[in-house]
Amino acid sequence: MNYKFKRHQKVVLLRVPNPEYIEYENEDSKVKIESGMKGEINIILPNGQYHVRIFDSKGNVIAYAPFNEEDLESAE
Predict the structure, then answer these.
(1) Which of 2, 19, 41, 44 registers the highest number of CB atoms within 10 A of its CB?
(2) CA 26 distance to own-chain centroid
């Protein structure tokens, strides 16, 4: 199967992920995830989705979430 993105590739979120599937790095400080935020492909899931690390404006990991290919854009 051909994938548009590779592991550790920088991406921009085009859509907000489903809140049910967001895994926050720190449960106490749930930052609102918005489109336009930057992330990095963590792993490619068996179902073809991408598990993405989501960064805040300072470059710190704030959450992880699954995304479809059409929900992401390359930041490189």
Answers:
(1) 41
(2) 16
Q: Average pLDDT of each block of 10 consecutive residues along the chain (76 residues)?
A: 91 96 87 94 95 95 96 94
| Calpha distance 67→8 (Å, rounded) | 14
Q: How far apart are CA 32 and CA 75, in angstroms?
A: 20
- Whose structure tokens read 């991406």? 11
pLDDT score at 63:
96
Residue 13 contacts residue 44 (beta carbons within 8 Å): no
The structural domain count of the chain equals 1
What domain range includes position 32? Answer: 10-74
